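> call design_seq(struct)
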């Protein structure tokens, strides 16, 4: 006979940690750095604090001198707002618990992150995590582990120290890692994070004592995302059912116990007589509480033992849960007035039209009426009276209706063209760079914005196109070949733009921000090829390819013009001398005026100081300010060579 059993979320990810990217010691140490840095950046961004993040990777004292894989302690510290002390154990000791489950853009989205890193560290080293947070002048330190079977935190120690005037969060996790193999990926991640967040200070301290620092190059931060209502095009039946239920509302009777005793049960009369005597003077909540006591036939003392789940006016039933045994029950609504009428009026809720306008973004009265006409549904019907079949019909019509306005993009926080260009100039030091931000679009009702940058020449080494992918400001380092961005790049006919993609040093940076990035794995490494996203990427890259084509054409024209001017300056004096000799003139023509015209032409078309015929093997030119970075006024931090390309 088969035995049925239940496991907790933490138990599931303990057994299937590969799903979250913790598949081996190499990936685990990279994922730990990534998840902790993302948490820090999200915290700073949401509080409008310019991030200062330090990442330290050290050999654990138990593993000194041992070969990889071995125990490492990863510590990430930030200057963000910190976490309320009472939430620290749950935030870091409970899987699928956090602040990421809202309709606004976040780097994290699954509620795994740091907790998954702590879980991996625990199962490979059996050592606890140490979390320090500063709030209101006090420094709180927690030492925690996970109760994996029950998905609960185990607090091994807590310390509170007064007098701290700082802020931020520090978390240290000891885990089994292979840094010798993960080093390049960790460096790539830090460098690319600096590229996409040029307003952050980031320091990486490695086990060998070396330190890599990326300084802030701008103080302007992107606008923070805001939470928005759902868009009707992205709604499924379950979400719609939950919205209807939340609109009608579940009722926790225990919240009304004291007020009910005070306002209704002032005498020795029963609940029915006492409530009817004062009915017109009772608030709506007191009427509801009294009506439920009558229908369930329970005493005031038992109010805190019951939770009302749903009042179903169609079936004329009340569904509730008894909290002592967690049993789900239902009773028929008794024909006792005015209690019956009051409960049914509460359960019916708003009209369908009012419900649509109130609960969905960019749906007004006119749009709502047109949609309901399309769906062939009565806008005056109460949502509590909708049958299951009608809820399914409503959700299906939302998917098919094409008259909704595009989703609201205020829930998104793109990098911005200025910041993306500054980051690319800082890291790659190119000869040419161009960026574009596409207008907001949507897939399945979820808004998204595509940003793309292209860089050419300068300090970019090697040949061919190098792709750097980002999603919600997260660098994506693995599974590049499976990503939608690479698919788009391969489909573009680069010859049309005079670009030899296999011979030229080109960098393409893609960034997609959305409330719901369509990752193909929980590990968040590559993006699915949704047609809407593919379309926006293709248009952005084509636009930038045209910009690059114009630059290359101008570069070729300037080189030819320079060559012609060089020939003129060489042969005009000879022609003048030969003409003088042939004509037996006493003096030579005034040819220097022609040379001055040539010099003036050089200045007008931008050739002065630029010798394209003598550019080096990388295709570098020299701009007018005398340096070779192509910008002249952007402080250069980091190094394009920091970013490796080994995908082992």
């Amino acid at each position: 006979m088969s035995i049925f059993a239940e496991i907790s979320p933490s138990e599931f990810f303990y057994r299937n940690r590969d799903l979250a990217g913790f598949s081996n010691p190499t990936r685990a140490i990279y994922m730990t750095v990534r998840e902790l840095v993302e948490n820090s950046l999200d915290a700073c961004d949401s509080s409008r604090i310019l991030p200062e993040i330090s990442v330290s990777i050290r050999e654990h004292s138990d593993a000194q001198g041992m070969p990889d894989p071995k125990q490492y302690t990863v510590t990430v510290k930030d200057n963000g707002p910190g976490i309320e002390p009472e939430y620290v154990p749950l935030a870091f000791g409970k899987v699928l618990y956090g602040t990421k489950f809202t309709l606004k853009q976040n780097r994290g989205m699954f509620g795994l992150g740091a907790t998954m890193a702590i879980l991996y560290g625990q199962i490979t080293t059996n050592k606890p995590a140490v979390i320090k947070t500063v709030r209101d002048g006090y420094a709180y330190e927690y030492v925690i582990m996970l109760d994996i079977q029950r998905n609960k935190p185990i607090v091994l120690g807590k310390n509170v120290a007064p007098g701290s005037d700082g802020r931020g969060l520090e978390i240290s996790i000891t885990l089994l890692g292979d840094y010798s193999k993960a080093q390049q990926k960790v460096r790539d991640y830090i460098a690319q994070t600096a590229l996409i967040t040029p307003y952050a200070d980031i320091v990486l301290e490695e086990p060998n004592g070396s330190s890599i620092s990326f300084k802030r190059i701008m103080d302007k931060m992107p606008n923070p995302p805001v939470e928005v209502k759902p868009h009707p095009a992205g709604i499924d039946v379950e979400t719609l059912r939950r919205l209807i239920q939340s609109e009608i509302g579940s009722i926790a009777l225990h919240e009304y116990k004291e007020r009910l005793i005070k306002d209704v049960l002032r005498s020795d009369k029963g609940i029915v007589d006492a409530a009817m005597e004062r009915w017109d003077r009772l608030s709506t909540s007191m009427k509801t509480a009294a009506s439920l006591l009558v229908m369930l036939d329970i005493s005031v003392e038992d109010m805190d033992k019951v939770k009302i789940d749903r009042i179903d006016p169609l079936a004329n039933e009340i569904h509730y849960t008894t909290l002592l045994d967690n049993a789900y029950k239902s009773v028929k609504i008794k024909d006792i007035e005015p209690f019956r009428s009051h409960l049914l009026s509460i359960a019916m809720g708003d009209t369908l039209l009012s419900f649509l306008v109130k609960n969905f973004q960019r749906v007004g009265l006119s749009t709502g009426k047109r949609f309901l006409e399309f769906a062939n549904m009565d806008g005056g019907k109460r949502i509590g009276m909708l049958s299951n079949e009608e809820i399914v019909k409503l959700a299906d019509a939302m998917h098919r209706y094409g008259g909704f306005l595009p989703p609201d993009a205020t829930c998104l926080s793109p990098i911005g063209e200025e910041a993306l260009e500054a980051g690319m100039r800082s890291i790659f030091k190119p000869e040419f760079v161009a960026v574009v931000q596409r207008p907001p679009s949507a897939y399945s009702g979820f808004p998204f914005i595509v940003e793309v940058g292209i860089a050419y020449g300068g300090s970019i080494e090697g040949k061919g196109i190098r792709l750097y992918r980002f999603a919600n400001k997260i660098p994506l380092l693995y599974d590049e070949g499976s990503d939608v961005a690479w698919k788009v790049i391969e489909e573009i006919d680069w010859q049309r733009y005079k670009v030899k993609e296999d011979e030229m040093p080109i960098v393409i940076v893609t960034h997609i921000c959305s409330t719901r990035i369509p990752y193909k794995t929980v590990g968040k490494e590559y993006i699915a090829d949704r047609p809407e996203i593919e379309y926006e990427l293709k248009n952005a890259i084509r636009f930038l390819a045209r910009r690059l084509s114009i630059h290359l054409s101008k570069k070729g024209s300037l080189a030819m013009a320079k060559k012609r001017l060089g020939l003129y300056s060489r042969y005009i004096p000879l022609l003048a001398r030969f003409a003088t000799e042939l004509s037996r003139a006493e003096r030579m023509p005034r040819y220097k005026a022609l040379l001055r015209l040539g010099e003036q032409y050089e200045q007008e078309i931008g050739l002065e100081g630029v010798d394209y015929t003598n550019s080096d093997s990388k295709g570098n030119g020299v701009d007018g300010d005398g340096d070779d970075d192509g910008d002249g006024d952007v402080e250069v931090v980091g190094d394009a060579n920091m970013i490796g390309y080994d995908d082992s």
